[in-house]
Every structure is written in structure tokens, then in C-alpha cells.
Design goal:
The complex is a heterodimer of chains A (310) and B (300).
Chain A (H helix, E strand, L loop, with lengths): L1 H18 L2 H4 L2 H26 L8 H18 L3 H20 L7 H21 L11 E2 L5 E2 L2 E2 L3 H24 L1 H11 L1 H6 L4 H27 L1 E2 L6 H14 L4 H17 L4 H18 L13
Antiparallel strand pairs in A: 1-4, 2-3
Helix pairs in contact in A: 3-7, 3-10, 3-11, 3-12, 4-5, 4-10, 5-10, 7-8, 7-10, 8-10, 11-12
Chain B lengths: L1 H31 L6 H20 L5 H28 L7 H23 L4 E2 L9 E4 L2 E4 H23 L1 H11 L1 H6 L4 H27 L1 E2 L3 H16 L4 H22 L4 H15 L14
Antiparallel strand pairs in B: 1-4, 2-3
Helix pairs in contact in B: 1-5, 1-8, 1-9, 1-10, 2-3, 2-4, 2-8, 2-9, 3-8, 5-6, 5-8, 6-8, 9-10, 10-11
Chain lengths: 310, 300
């Protein structure tokens, strides 16, 4: 068992390293798709922290992704803060929002939490559209977001941006992997399986759940910053409820708590549609059918989490 | 005073529609513990089927009451059939699976129906004919009440009363209530739970088709993404009244319609939706089981 797990890690590391060579093998439009894959993979993994690992039905995850993107966009365009400096702030504010919004709702039963998070998402999008204080740019959003620079080096080219995204995806993957085994990650798993038993064994359910929301939101905020940079513009339409539904579906279709599952789900939901652009009309129709088919045939997801000793 | 009465009439009209759609959410949730995310799209599919009946056979002339009734009946039958089919294909195989699998299946069904509508009828906004109903209006206490509003309010009241009597005063209604409390116990008492579930997927989408067609007639338009918007409102109405609770969905629908009308009339229309969702969150915080309480047995 142990040997196999090591192999999984090695295979992942190898694939990640091979991914670094993508800009040499693909033309720039494909490099951009690969960059979006990395960004959405981070977002989907962050949703997995809350939904897949902690078992909390979060159907408003686009809010935290959006907060990250807007924090970077506003700080960079109005105060000229360098992009990479906005990144920790984006994560921090998203985490704070995640903790604050979830704190009062955490005790709600699954379906009610789901409905409340849908509500948060709708309010977030409306707020961005209504342009409070003139800082969010209304429905058109914010344009002209700058280029990140690292050690005086301007990461201007699509390839450079891809490497930045890919490197951060690597870091997030390491975090997720540690979450499989660390104390906090195990506490999440116990809570998901049996909250009463976990509480009896001394797991502080409220604290652990709030932390899970904060961590998931922080990682989504990170992805939001990368998203804003990649597009050099943000607008409310990128963070609507449908995006949250897609993230939710990625985790369940891929496999809850399963890193390869979530990555496969991201590829299916965000990359495959790019390939079939010419069939755009039929895209979501087929998607809907595929979602039903996967769930009926494989209710645990495409690549379910392997049962561990826990 | 005029505005006040006007907002009440407008609110009751929209509230009646919300209630008709909310009943579908609440009945399915009551029996299956499943949020049927495809319900709103089914309702709008009903509006499109009805519209096709009305425009396809009217030939430009006055459609008349008989044709309107025919469109309504065809739409109810089509959507009830679609509801039963949906349950068989997308929900029944997942009854024993992880609840989230059914949620994603429902979301997939919603995407499929919504985009199916787009593929058949196109992405543009369809306009409902203006000559469907008499243009008669009444002036009461400074407010203008149209024939459409009276028809919608009366029809929703009659349908809700009929459903209430059916669920509370017939043998089959008792079976539905029993299955909602405890499926296994109901099965042991000789109730055919599969038939109950099928019936819920006939009644809910059937009423929803009427609601969808009313939306089309009242706002005089239909477009393929409409299902989400109105579905979400109706769903909030179901939560407001207490999900799984049939009188609750009726009350929730009417209250939400009134709330919306007053928020739009007195506060601001650009923040109207935000206020509605804010209300939803406040309810969930203060009284998650809704005004009348949910009739759902808690699994421990």
C-alpha cells in the first residue's frame, strides 16, 4: 500500500514537470488554455477542500474566486500595487470573507447551507454590477490590469504567465496532498463521516469547519488573482452562480477528496469545451446529459478517492 | 394609496405564480429530500410548449378561450410526462446513492432542458401574443387591475385549494403524506412508494407548467434561461414557507410575491434581487425550517 502511494506521488510530480514543457510544444492559444486549466484546477481544488473533504455543500464558491480577482484588479488599477503584492491580500480577504460568511451558517444542514451559499453568490454578483462606491466598474468590470513582475522580470509573455500559474498549481497540489495526512485534514474527514463521533473524540467541529471554509476561500482567492492577470480584465459575469455550479459539479463528477479526480473533472469541464468550440450550441446540452450519465453510472465520481486506513 | 393597492395586486399575481412553481419543489423535496434543480426549466419548457400551441395554430387570428385552454392542457400533459421521464432516468437510479450525486444529476438535467429549449426554439426572446385575453381593466382604489391578473390570482387560488384538498382528504393524498414522513414505514404499510414518487413528478411539473405559461402570458415573453431566474424565486418561496410543507409553499409564494413587489415599488429595482436573497439568508439564519416549519423527518 505504501509503495503504491509513493508511486502516485512520483507520477504526479513527473506529470507536473512534463507540464512545464507545454509552452515549447503548443502554440500560444493552447498555452493560454493550459494556463486557464491551471487556474481553474486551483479553484476546483479549493472547492474540494470545502465540499469534498469537509462535506459542506458550498454552491457559491465563485464568490471567493471573484473576491480574489476584484481585490487584485482594484488594487492594481487604482493604487498601482504590483500584482504579486496583491496576491497575499487577495487570499487574505477571500479567506476572511469565507470565514465570516460561513461562521453563522455552518451549523445548517447540508441543503440549507447550499441554498444560503447560492444566495451569497447572487448578492455578490449584484453588488459588483451595481458598482458600490464606484470601485467595481459595474457590469463592464475593470480593465487594464497590469502584468506581474518577478525579481524585476516582467512576466509578459503567455508562456511566462503559464509558468507562474503552473508553479502555483504545483504548490496548491502539495497543500492538498498534505491535507490527506495532516491532523487538520483528518479532522475534516472524521467530521464529514460522522460529526457526532468526531466531536466526541475532541474535534472542535465549528472551528475546523470555519477553517476549512477559510482555507478553501484563500486558495480560490489565489486563483482569482491569477485569473484577473490572465484576462487583464474582470467583470461580474465571470463569477456568476453558473460558475459555482460548474465547480461544484467538477468535484462530484471527478470524485470528492480525490486530487486526480478533481483534475480530471477540471479538464472535462473547462478544457474539453475549448476543443469543441465549433459545437458551442450543443455544448451545454451534451454537458447536462453527461453529468446525468456519469452520476447514474458512477455515483462516486470518475476517479473516486481510494479508501485509506482512516 | 393607489401605489399601495397596485403593489398588492401585482404582488399577489406574481406570488400566485411563485406558489404554483414552489409546490413542485416542495412536494419533490418532501418525498425524496431532493432539490429538483430542473424544476424551473421544466416550467419554462411548459411556457414554450404552450406558446407553440398558441402561435402555431392561431394563424394570426384571435386565439380565443378554447385554444388557450387547449394550450394549457397540452402543456400540462407534456411537462408532467417530462417530469416522470426525468425521475426515471436521472433520479430513480440514484435513490440509494450519495445525495450529492442526485444533486449533480439534477443540475445536469437543468442544463440539458435549458439548452434543449435553446436548440429547439433558439436563443432569442419570444414574445407572447397580446390578444390572448380580453384587455379589460378595472380601477379599484386608484389601482389598475387587468383581466390577466384576475385570471392568474383566481386560477392559482383554485389550484392550490384543489391540491390542498387532494393531499389532505383523499386516500392517495394520505399516501403521499405518509411517504414524506417515512418511506420505509410507508412501504411496510402497503403504500406503493414508487407510485407516490411518480405522482409527485406528475403533480409538481403539471402545476409548474401552468405557472410557466402564466409567466409567459403575464410578462408576455419567454426565453430559454428564464427557468433559473423564476425557479430560484419559487425555490426561495418554498424555503420561506418551510420546504416539504405544502401550505407553506403556497404562503411562501404569496409572501415573496408581495415582498418583491414592495421592494421594487418602494426601494430600488436594481437592488431588488439582492434584497430578496438577503431575506433568504436572514430566514435561513433565524428560522431555517421556514415560517410554517418543514414537514421533513430529520434523519439522525
Amino acid at each position: 500500500m505504501r509503495r503504491f502511494k509513493l508511486d502516485g506521488l512520483k507520477l504526479g510530480a513527473l506529470l507536473w514537470a512534463a507540464g512545464l514543457a507545454l509552452p515549447f510544444a503548443l502554440d500560444s492559444s493552447w498555452v493560454s488554455i493550459a494556463a486557464f486549466f491551471a487556474i481553474y484546477a486551483i479553484t476546483a481544488l479549493s472547492e474540494d477542500v470545502i465540499l469534498g473533504r469537509a462535506g459542506m455543500f458550498d454552491m457559491g464558491h465563485a464568490v471567493y474566486f471573484g473576491i480574489g480577482a476584484y481585490v487584485t484588479a482594484i488594487l492594481n488599477t487604482t493604487l498601482n500595487v504590483p500584482i504579486l503584492l496583491t496576491l497575499p491580500l487577495a487570499m487574505l480577504l477571500a479567506a476572511a470573507a469565507g470565514a465570516l460568511l460561513s461562521a453563522p451558517l455552518i451549523r445548517l444542514r447540508g441543503d440549507y447551507l447550499l441554498v444560503a451559499t447560492i444566495g451569497f453568490n447572487a448578492i455578490f454578483v449584484l453588488a459588483m454590477q451595481n458598482n458600490p462606491g464606484g470601485i467595481t466598474g459595474g457590469s463592464d468590470g475593470i480593465t487594464g490590469i497590469g502584468v506581474p513582475s518577478l525579481f524585476g522580470l516582467q512576466l509578459e509573455s503567455q508562456s511566462a504567465m503559464f509558468w507562474l500559474d503552473w508553479a502555483l498549481l504545483g504548490l496548491v497540489l502539495l497543500v492538498m496532498r498534505n491535507l490527506d495526512t495532516c491532523e487538520f485534514g483528518r479532522a475534516l474527514r472524521y467530521l464529514k463521516q460522522d460529526e457526532l463521533a468526531a466531536s466526541t473524540l475532541g474535534v472542535d467541529a465549528r472551528k475546523v469547519k470555519t477553517l476549512a471554509f477559510a482555507l478553501g476561500a484563500a486558495l480560490a482567492g489565489l486563483a482569482g488573482t491569477l485569473f484577473a492577470v490572465q484576462l487583464s480584465t474582470v467583470s461580474p459575469s465571470s463569477f456568476v452562480f453558473t460558475e459555482s455550479v460548474t465547480l461544484f459539479a467538477i468535484v462530484i463528477v471527478g470524485g470528492q477528496g480525490s486530487i486526480p479526480g478533481v483534475l480530471l473533472g477540471t479538464a472535462l469541464m473547462f478544457v474539453v469545451p475549448q476543443i469543441f468550440r465549433s459545437l458551442a450550441e450543443y455544448r451545454y446540452f451534451v454537458f447536462g446529459i453527461a453529468m446525468i450519465a456519469v452520476m447514474v453510472l458512477r455515483p462516486q465520481g470518475l476517479l473516486p478517492r481510494k479508501r485509506s486506513a482512516a | 394609496m393607489g401605489t399601495f393597492v397596485q403593489q398588492i395586486v401585482n404582488g399577489l399575481t406574481v406570488g400566485g405564480i411563485y406558489a404554483l412553481i414552489a409546490l413542485g419543489y416542495t412536494m419533490v423535496y418532501g418525498v425524496m429530500r431532493l432539490i429538483n434543480f430542473a424544476h424551473g426549466d421544466l416550467c419554462i419548457l411548459g411556457a414554450f410548449v404552450g406558446l407553440t400551441m398558441l402561435t402555431g395554430s392561431a394563424g394570426g387570428g384571435h386565439p380565443g378561450a378554447a385554444l388557450l385552454l387547449l394550450a394549457l392542457v397540452v402543456s400540462i400533459i407534456a411537462i408532467a410526462g417530462a417530469g416522470v421521464l426525468l425521475e426515471r432516468i436521472a433520479y430513480r437510479p440514484l435513490r440509494k446513492a450519495d445525495r450529492l450525486a442526485a444533486v449533480v444529476s439534477a443540475l445536469g438535467a437543468s442544463l440539458m432542458i435549458e439548452n434543449g429549449i435553446m436548440l429547439i426554439w433558439g436563443p432569442q426572446v419570444h414574445v407572447f401574443p397580446s390578444n390572448l385575453l380580453p384587455a379589460t381593466t378595472w380601477h379599484v382604489a386608484g389601482a389598475t387591475i387587468s383581466f390577466v391578473q384576475v385570471m392568474i390570482i383566481l386560477a392559482s387560488l383554485v389550484l392550490m385549494a384543489a391540491l390542498y384538498l387532494f393531499v389532505n382528504h383523499t386516500r392517495f393524498g394520505t399516501a403521499i403524506r405518509a411517504a414524506a414522513i417515512d418511506q420505509d414505514a410507508a412501504r411496510l404499510m402497503g403504500i406503493n412508494v414508487n407510485r407516490v414518487i411518480t405522482s409527485v413528478f406528475i403533480i409538481g411539473p403539471g402545476l409548474g407548467a401552468i405557472g410557466g405559461l402564466f409567466i409567459g402570458i403575464y410578462y408576455r415573453e419567454a426565453y430559454f434561461t428564464m427557468g433559473w431566474t423564476y425557479g430560484l424565486y419559487a425555490f426561495i418561496a418554498a424555503i420561506l414557507g418551510g420546504i416539504g410543507n405544502i401550505p407553506g409553499a403556497m404562503l411562501g409564494g404569496v409572501l415573496l410575491g408581495l415582498f418583491n413587489a414592495f421592494a421594487a415599488g418602494y426601494v430600488s429595482s436594481s437592488w431588488q434581487d439582492a434584497i430578496t436573497f438577503g431575506l433568504l439568508i436572514v430566514i435561513l439564519l433565524v428560522r431555517p425550517t421556514g415560517l410554517l416549519g418543514e414537514r421533513v423527518a430529520e434523519k439522525v
